[in-house]
Automatic annotation (TrEMBL), chain A:
InterPro entries membership: bHLH_dom, bHLH_ZIP_TF, HLH_DNA-bd_sf
SMART domains given in the database record: HLH
A GO cellular-component term linked to this record: nucleus
Alphabetized GO MF terms: DNA-binding transcription factor activity; protein dimerization activity
Record-given protein name: BHLH domain-containing protein
Species of provenance: Zingiber officinale
Pfam (any one): HLH
Keywords: Nucleus, Transcription, Transcription regulation
Region (Disordered) location: 122-159
Length: 386, 183
């Protein structure tokens, strides 16, 4: 009988082309077996063409027409239709189609090729085109069928069962819907069958996945920010939350500005040189704690300041290093880099603007106000002992 | 002192309360430790001392730089601050200031509407742009990294404000005390 041969053809073709084709063809074979529990032989090669059109389940002319309509995708559709059709016209066609043998061979080729492509992801336009199929009264069954074989065998089989049980037109719609639902869980836009939006589970399409990951990232960070900003947890909506965040950042920056003005106002009244002594007093016992690299790095960094300034600066960065070493012991190298940067940076920052000023207070300060020192020290201590 | 005990307790409390993994943990534990505040405070003092007679601008710059230093270069904004200050501070500062603040309104928000329309609406992209302008060095940054930087920056700013306030209070109190006996 033809159907067995067609399945045999399928097997042969699958041998030639790809495992997907083998699957799809095996699927058809199984369908056939469901219908006709006759044993199949896998060695009916030359009848491939005729059986192909036989599998089509339509007269050869219709099959050819379908095939030629959409060019490449036809064979797939038509071939897939095979699976559904044996119910209706398994027996009549083979005889009719034998005349169309040679063309069918090419159709088989194309079908095989495009089943591969379908599995890998043929253009979605084919799906679009297939979607248009149900509107045609000619080949409603095309829709469910294409989805079947290229997808997993099981779903296809179930679809086939559905198809077998129902009439074709209703089947088309039902299986199309079923395929849609089932498709959601598989590739998104890759397969030609997917005229589906991934609504049920999550789309496993690369694009959707990337989108989802990106959105997740953004949402996580937004949540963090929401918790940081007071009063933002109640606000819903990204834009409003961002508003609040911006507001908060601006507030903080303004506060920094005001405080800096305040400090600037306070500064002239206090001899910062007194802080020198304060710091130097701290430096003594602290140097013990200092890492080996810290102190060594400093002197090399300030070749420019050769005056008393240099000594002062040496003390200062040492102090910094001392501070830095205890909290972060691991990255010594990064420490030194940052210390160097910090020291150099502090050098650079005041240098162009305040180099003139620095000398005066430094030189004069040491002799000036020892009584301020103590007060400052306590004040600073209190301020900094947090 | 006025703010120090509360700030210390709040710092420690917040540090312990927040145990979420990920960026928040890093940001919080990084910036809200008392040690960090001390470090920053000392750095600030030094910087202030270095720029003593200058106006509030210099003070702010110095404090920002000190803050960025304390960040140890792990955040983009800190690197941006330091790099901006380092090379030709006056020019760069002016340039950045002018460009940053006097720039006309950005082009219409037809940009970031790529994939998801709902969270990335026009408003959101607008606000993201504004946020990028606020956080130094984060103008052209993607949304997730921008948000991360903003979180870090916010925590750092909070610490800065705290420390500066404490310092200002201490210094003013000290100066008052010093002024009283008649220097």
């Amino acid at each position: 009988m033809e159907p067995p041969r067609s399945s045999g053809v399928g097997i042969d073709n699958s041998g030639e082309y790809s495992p997907e084709i083998a699957e799809t063809l095996r699927f058809e074979e199984e369908i056939q077996s469901l219908i006709h529990p006759s044993s199949f032989d896998g060695s009916a090669a030359p009848t491939g063409g005729g059986s192909f059109t036989a599998l089509l389940g339509l007269p050869a002319n219709q099959a050819v027409e379908l095939l030629h309509d959409s060019g490449a995708r036809e064979p797939l559709a038509s071939r897939i239709r095979v699976g559904g059709h044996p119910v209706h016209r398994p027996f009549h066609l083979p005889l009719d189609c034998s005349s169309a043998f040679p063309s069918n061979a090419t159709l088989v080729d194309r079908a095989a090729r495009f089943s591969v492509f379908a599995a890998e992801g043929s253009p979605a336009s084919s799906s679009g085109r297939l979607k248009a199929e149900p509107q045609d009264s000619d080949s409603p069954p095309l829709d469910p069928i294409p989805t079947g074989p290229a997808k997993r065998k099981d779903t296809g089989r179930s679809k086939c069962d559905v198809r077998l049980s129902l009439s074709f037109k209703s089947q088309a719609k039902a299986t199309a819907k079923k395929s849609k639902n089932a498709e959601e869980n598989t590739d998104g836009d890759k397969l030609p069958y997917v005229h589906v939006r991934a609504r049920r589970g999550q789309a496993t399409d690369n694009h959707s996945l990337a989108e989802r990951a990106r959105r997740e990232k953004i949402n996580v960070r937004m949540k963090l920010l929401q918790e940081l900003v007071p009063g933002c947890s109640k606000i819903t909506g990204t834009a409003l939350v961002l508003d609040e965040i911006i507001n908060h950042v601006q507030t903080l920056q303004r506060q920094v500005e005001f405080l800096s003005m305040r400090l600037a106002a306070v500064n002239p009244r206090i001899d910062f040189s007194s802080l020198d002594s304060y710091l130097s007093a701290e430096c003594g016992p602290v140097t013990v704690r200092n890492g080996p690299g810290g102190v060594v790095v400093d002197p090399s960094l300030w070749p420019t300041d050769a005056t008393a300034e240099a000594t002062r600066r040496l003390l200062v960065p040492q102090f910094w290093h001392i501070d830095l070493v205890p909290p972060q012991l691991q990255p010594q190298q990064s420490l030194t880099t940052w210390e160097r940067d910090g020291a150099a940076h502090s050098q650079l920052l005041p240098n162009p603007t305040t180099s003139l000023f620095l000398y005066d207070p430094a030189n004069s300060g040491n002799a000036n106000v020892p009584h301020l020192t103590a007060k400052l020290k306590t004040a600073e201590d209190r301020a900094l002992n947090l | 002192m006025i703010a120090s005990p509360s700030s210390s307790s709040s710092a420690r409390g917040s540090k312990k309360a927040i145990t979420k993994p990920g960026f928040k943990d890093q940001a919080e534990s990084k910036w809200r430790t008392a040690a960090q505040q001390r470090i920053y405070g000392r750095r600030l003092i030094d910087a202030l001392r270095a720029t003593a007679p200058s106006g509030p601008h210099a003070v702010k710059e110095a404090s920002d730089s000190a803050l960025a230093l304390t960040a140890r270069g792990q955040s983009r904004w800190s690197r941006a601050i330091l790099l901006g200050r380092r090379r030709r501070p006056s020019c760069k500062f002016l340039l950045k200031a002018r460009r940053g603040r006097r720039q006309p309104k950005p082009p219409p928000p037809a940009l970031k509407q790529g994939m998801a329309a709902s969270p990335e609406g026009k408003k959101v992209s607008d606000r993201l742009r504004v946020l990028g302008r606020l956080v130094p060095g984060c103008r052209k940054l993607s949304a997730p990294s921008l948000l991360e930087e903003a979180a870090d920056y916010m925590v750092a700013l909070e610490m800065q404000v705290k420390t500066m306030r404490a310092l200002a209070e201490a210094l003013s109190a000290a100066s008052l005390n010093a002024a009283e006996p008649g220097s």
